[in-house]
Specification:
The protein has helices at 2-6, 14-22, 54-63, 81-89, 100-112, 150-154; strands at residues 43-46, 49-51, 71-75, 92-97, 119-123, 136-141, 156-167, 172-180, 183-192. Strands 5-4-3-6-7-8-9 form a seven-stranded mixed β-sheet. It has a two-stranded antiparallel ribbon with strand order 1-2. The relative contact order is 0.14. With 204 residues, the protein is an alpha/beta fold. It is built from six helices and nine strands. The chain binds S-adenosyl-L-homocysteine. Residues 49-52, 57, 75-79, 81-82, 96-99, 102, 125-127, 142-143, 195, 197-199, 202 line the site of S-adenosyl-L-homocysteine (SAH).
């Protein structure tokens, strides 16, 4: 999975590649779809949601340039896989999930895989970020929004990076928003298609 889907497509950060090798994606997928654990696609996790394509998880993690010391917010934890990858790359992860059953599934799998040491899964609406633990060195949003919610950008430290799919309900651009020395910049990482972010910062 790592050499064909990631290295061959340009993922270079050795820490990201190692995290992708070490976190068992299949464990985060419901049993009936577990055989699809290494597929190059999103996979259904129930409740109309998916675990992202592995390449997208790796690319989003690489875009944040994590060194291991950061506090990271993940919005849209789903099954908890992406949170586990971020947990391997940063000091602490707050993962917000709006669907209670998925939040519970993420918590349980993180515990079962022993990857929950530095990850807190909370259930709620993260479409305007999660002010309780702000500010964050990095924010990763796994669901698409019309634009980067201003409250989320405000919860980012300087320096800090936010990665989020923005665009229409059906098609988006993966954007990396960075704050550095008081200046906020946005760059295009790739084109993509994510499930919609619910709530006031996304689509109601
Ligand atoms: N991070 C996952 C991807 C999950 S898909 C992975 O490991 O691959 C995106 C998730 O965002 C879904 O589970 C959906 O329920 C959740 N979501 C949508 N809107 C949200 C919101 N406003 N707050 C928190 N989670 C949200």
């Amino acid at each position: 999975m790592v050499s064909r889907q990631m290295e061959a497509r340009g993922i270079r950060d050795p820490r990201v590649l190692e995290a992708m090798r070490n976190v068992p994606r299949e464990q985060f997928i419901p049993e009936e779809h577990r055989h699809l654990g290494c597929e190059d696609d999103p996979v259904s996790i129930g409740f109309g949601q998916t675990i992202s394509q592995p390449y997208m998880t790796a690319l989003m993690a690489e875009c944040l340039c994590l060194q291991g010391t950061e506090a990271v917010l993940e919005v849209g934890a789903g099954c908890g896989y992406h949170a586990a990858v971020l947990g391997a790359l940063a000091a602490r992860v707050i993962a917000v999930e709006i669907i209670p059953e998925l939040a519970e599934m993420a918590r349980r799998t993180l515990q079962e895989t022993g990857l929950d040491r530095n990850i807190l899964v909370v259930c709620g609406d993260g479409s305007r970020g999660w002010p309780d633990e702000a500010p964050y060195d990095a924010i990763s949003v796994a669901a698409a929004a019309p634009d980067a919610p201003a409250e989320m950008v405000a919860q980012l430290k300087d320096p800090g990076s936010l990665v989020i799919p923005v665009g229409s309900y059906w098609e988006q651009e993966l954007r990396v928003i960075t704050k550095s020395q008081g200046v906020t910049r946005s760059r295009l990482a790739t084109y993509c298609r994510f499930v919609p972010l619910r709530g006031p910062g996304g689509w109601e």
